[in-house]
């Protein structure tokens, strides 16, 4: 049973007296709130007051004209500012941040030892042993990461650390706890001291095994033996028409039963014995769930998806053309998902051809952002929301999740990254369960019928439409998650994940985490630039501010600065100074949100259009952008969900020559950029025509091609060694 989706009008952003709201160039402190919004007073003069409704505050924050700094006026934050100023974690030197994260791992290790000791303090000998054990574990992990090249684009240098003395450790721990476990407290202020893999069985065989195994969750209550017997008969029938070298494999008993045992136990009992018995049996798991609000705990998981295997399970593979099968048969895609533990909502789904830290960081960025444009691109009827600040993230111990780059990004985003130990399977590995839940809903987007004749077929071109790419596989997964999975009632909450998430966003105050400036500081593409008299040029766009020129006068014209530009928004850049990040606006009057992918594509179009050389350059760029948006190509570029998307480093290298020498100034008239539209696509209208071969009685039973178009089916709502920690 599904529920009607709840409409989200705005997100109620939670601010308190300890928060700082920066709006219209003034820092404000909340005094109190009423039913409609917040009463604020200026920090420098409490007699100056203003009022912002919940809707106005949400609009200003999303537009980037207001910022909320949580816990700004608390004692720990005031102490931290006295030590570090306004710097964020990523604004310190990279080697200092890595050392701080190592210190934090040591503290967590020792605290766990204290808990294992019944909460009693450790003796000096036990504490020294714990510190040695922690360092040994960290050094072993560093060596493993350095010698593993399967998960990283670059070679990693192994680092070795020495255990701190007891006195030094206790000093670290005291300051860390006083600053409410802010990892910046561990940054040295002076220079001193795998993924689950598919089996070797061919994907087609594995897909058939899985499809028969899923029949175990049925009211007919078939036995495992009966299902395996039926599967063997089916495979033997298929093998009669195949070459000996192409025979499908027979499932072994243990392997087949293991597939069944991997099914969600609650769903199996509900299908075989009814929902009432399933609820009664699993009530302890439902009432004992240890996350009570959205964002309190999110879970990351990565899964190696073989496109053929999954489409075989979904009964879609046989509908595809031979050409499409050949293209997809080698596609192995790493799917990275995020699930909210309290509601079951999926705030992010990304795909990549490599399982590395960059994919994990990209997934975190997506999880925190609004994804309505992606929902429209894939044809979903339901919006896809972000906005909740995550408190804890649980992952497995795979190399991408334990890498220094991943830990650095999570901590900079304010998310505590945790790797639960063995014995807590409910904190890990949920993607296979998600795929099992949405199983059977994919077929409605495909057409497997045939036409009765040419008149019924009309002018529909089967060859032009009977295709499926890896990008479309990802789009289908996202669409089914949004329009099917998000609208299935969660037995733990009693309502759908979508409704539970939207109600929390709108009715309960949340720490809003889609601040475009914070996202750019943390997730922006790293670049290097020098400050010129007219500012900085990034991708041909001029960025300038008085604050930027102040740093040019201080550090000189030859100084190189670290710059970050977010790939989805080129309206601002962030420049790292010795005082922290500063935000610099563009000076070409670009007020619309334009992604780097759109900008690069428009530049390429302009460079290839020699006939328009007499037009002003910005007018040509504007026309190219509007063409991209009107044809729907911009929507796909902005979404950036393709597993074939280049890494930041690859993209920067590829586009450096394209923008070389380009310096744009403000246009004579303002930009007139059209809104983004989505291109027509059979996936979005409910059917993909499949080319099928049928026997023709008039042609000696030679196969001929025909296709059919279905109407839309509505969707229910060892290396260099460095020593540290010397006293």
Explain how this protein is built.
The chain has 727 residues and is α+β, with helices and mostly antiparallel strands. 39% of the residues lie in helices and 13% in strands. It contains 28 helices and 18 strands. The strands form 5 sheets. It has a 5-stranded antiparallel sheet with strand order 4-3-2-1-5, covered by helices on one side. A 5-stranded mixed sheet has the order 8-7-6-9-10, sandwiched between helices. The longest helix is centred in the first third of the chain and has 24 residues, at 124-147. The protein starts with 19 loop residues before the first strand and ends in a 21-residue tail after the last strand. The model is unreliable at 191-199, 284-289, 446-467 and 685-727 (pLDDT under 50).
């Amino acid at each position: 049973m599904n529920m009607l989706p709840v409409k989200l009008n705005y997100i109620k952003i939670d601010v308190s007296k300890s928060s700082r709201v920066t709006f219209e160039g003034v820092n404000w402190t909340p005094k109190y709130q009423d039913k409609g919004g917040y009463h604020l007073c200026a920090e420098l003069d409490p007699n100056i007051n203003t009022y912002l409704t919940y809707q106005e505050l949400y609009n200003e924050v999303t537009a980037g004209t207001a910022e909320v700094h949580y816990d700004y006026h608390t004692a720990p934050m005031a102490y931290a500012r006295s030590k570090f100023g306004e710097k964020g974690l990523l604004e310190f030197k990279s080697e200092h941040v890595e050392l701080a994260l190592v210190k934090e791992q040591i503290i967590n290790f020792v605290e766990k030892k204290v808990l294992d000791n019944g909460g009693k303090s450790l003796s000096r000998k036990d504490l020294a042993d714990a510190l040695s054990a922690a360092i040994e574990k960290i050094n072993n992990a560093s060596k493993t990461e350095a010698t593993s090249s399967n998960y990283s684009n670059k070679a990693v240098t192994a680092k070795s650390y020495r255990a701190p003395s007891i006195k030094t450790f206790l000093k670290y721990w005291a300051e860390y706890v006083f600053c409410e476990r802010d990892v910046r407290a561990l940054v040295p202020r002076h220079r001193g001291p795998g993924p689950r893999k598919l089996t070797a069985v061919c994907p087609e065989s594995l897909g058939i095994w899985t499809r028969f195994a899923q029949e175990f969750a049925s009211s007919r209550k078939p036995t495992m033996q009966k299902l395996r017997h039926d599967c063997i008969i089916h495979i033997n029938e298929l093998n009669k028409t195949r070459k000996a070298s192409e025979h499908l494999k027979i499932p072994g008993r243990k392997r087949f039963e293991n597939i069944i045992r991997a099914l969600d136990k609650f769903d199996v009992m509900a299908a075989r014995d009814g929902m009432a018995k399933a609820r009664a049996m699993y009530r302890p798991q439902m009432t004992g769930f240890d996350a009570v609000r959205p964002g309190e705990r999110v879970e990351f998981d990565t899964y190696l998806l073989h496109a053929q295997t999954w489409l075989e399970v979904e009964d879609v593979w046989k509908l595809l053309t031979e050409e499409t099968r050949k293209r997809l048969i080698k596609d192995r895609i790493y799917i990275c998902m995020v699930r909210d533990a309290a509601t079951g909502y999926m705030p992010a789904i990304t795909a990549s051809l490599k399982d590395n830290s960059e994919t994990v960081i990209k997934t975190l960025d997506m999880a925190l952002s609004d994804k309505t444009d992606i929902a429209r691109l894939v044809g979903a009827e339901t919006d896809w929301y972000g906005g909740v600040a995550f408190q804890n993230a649980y992952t497995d111990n795979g190399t991408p999740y334990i890498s220094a780059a991943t830990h650095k990004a999570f901590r900079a985003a304010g998310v505590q990254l945790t790797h639960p130990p063995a014995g807590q399977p409910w904190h890990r590995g949920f993607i296979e369960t998600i795929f099992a839940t949405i199983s059977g809903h994919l077929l409605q987007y495909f057409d497997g019928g045939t036409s009765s004749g040419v008149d019924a077929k009309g002018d529909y071109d089967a060859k032009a439409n009977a295709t499926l790419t890896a990008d479309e596989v990802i789009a289908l997964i996202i669409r089914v998650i949004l329009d099917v999975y998000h609208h299935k009632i969660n037995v733990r909450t009693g309502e759908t994940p979508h409704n539970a998430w939207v109600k929390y966003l709108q009715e309960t105050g949340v720490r809003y985490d889609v601040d475009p400036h914070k996202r750019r500081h943390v997730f922006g593409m790293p670049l290097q630039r020098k400050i010129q008299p007219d500012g900085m040029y990034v991708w041909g766009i001029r960025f300038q501010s008085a604050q930027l020129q102040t740093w040019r006068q201080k550090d000189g014209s030859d100084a190189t600065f670290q710059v970050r530009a977010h790939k989805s928004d080129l309206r601002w850049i962030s420049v790292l100074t010795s005082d922290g990040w500063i935000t610099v606006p563009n000076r070409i009057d670009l007020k619309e949100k334009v992604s780097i992918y759109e900008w690069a594509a428009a530049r390429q179009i302009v460079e290839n259009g020699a006939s328009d050389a007499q037009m002003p350059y910005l007018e040509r760029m504007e026309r190219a952008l509007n063409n991209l948006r009107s044809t729907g190509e911009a929507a796909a570029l902005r979404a950036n969900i393709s597993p074939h998307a280049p890494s930041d480093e690859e993209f920067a290298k590829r586009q450096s020559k394209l923008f070389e020498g380009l310096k744009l100034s403000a246009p004579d008239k303002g930009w007139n950029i059209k809104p983004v539209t989505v291109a027509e696509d059979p996936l979005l209208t409910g059917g993909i025509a499949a080319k099928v071969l049928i026997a023709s009685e008039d042609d000696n039973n030679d196969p001929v091609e025909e296709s059919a178009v279905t109407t839309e089916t509505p969707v229910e709502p060892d290396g260099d060694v460095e020593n540290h920690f010397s006293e």
